[in-house]
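User: I'm putting together a teaching handout on how sequence relates to shape, and I'd like one worked example. Could you take Flavin-dependent thymidylate synthase from Frigidibacter mobilis, show the sequence you're using, and then write out its predicted structure as tokens right after it?

Assistant: Happy to. First the sequence, then the structure tokens directly below it.
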Amino acid sequence: MPLTPEQLAEIEEARSEPRQTLRATAPGMEAHLYTAHPVLDHGLVRVIDYMGDDAAITQAARVSYGRGTRAVSNDEGLIRYLMRHWHSTPFEMCEVKFHVKLPVFVARQWIRHRTANVNEYSARYSILDREFYIPAPDQLAAQSTVNNQGRGAVLEGEEAARVLDLLREDAMRSYDHYESMLSQDGQQGLARELARMNLPANIYTQWYWKIDLHNLFHFLRLRADAHAQYEIRVYAETMCRIVKDWVPLAYAAFEDYRLDAVQLSGKAAQVLRRRLAGEVVTQDSSGMSKGEWREFEAVWG
């Protein structure tokens, strides 16, 4: 169950009592407030609160740059200019607070983005639920033979069944031992902060994650990328859909200049110019390493 009965009751109560406000609101984001978007088998993403909209970005930019922005007469053009030239502070005027439920191993990867405020569910004070991430069959893949941090072919048949059985059995056994170590049936038991160390990395945790839009875009650029690990990418893709509804002009610029864009090194730009001039360029004559050349060819042929 992604949400507990208590959390569902809290959401229902919050949504049933709308409050008037004088601050700017974004209709698209208002529709997302408190709504739980399911991710993976037991995970979720939901918006707890937010501040700002597209107009907050342009307002901050015009205050900051004054006369320098008069040539950009409309908000969409200004936002695209800011994104195109890698401005950051105007996008920092918008903030959002998410409630995220995610497997621990995804959380450890996620926390590498040190530009947010985070408060995680504490297993020192509370007992974690018996909920584990078990990959869907189409995500049960072998190690890639060309990428040390990627996946290869999908496991099938008996091999897939064997791995799934091991994942389920190990998770359940670890949780059984976790429960048996806690204080129960008159036993003194082990402290929760110690008993938790026996839990597997695929157990679910939860946190509140608050971040400004500039740093959220950086997170999404990396984690919504096709090369990102699937388990964190699906969270990023869910957030992309939310952000698109929140700040549609800023998200369109982000999608164009960051998410769907291709960055060229100086050497790669030189190769393109030489190709356009009719020269046949090989990896040996490009000045690029084999890895760089492979990545270049994947985009440009």
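A couple of points you could highlight for students: The two ends are 46 Å apart (CA to CA). Residues 134-201 form one domain.
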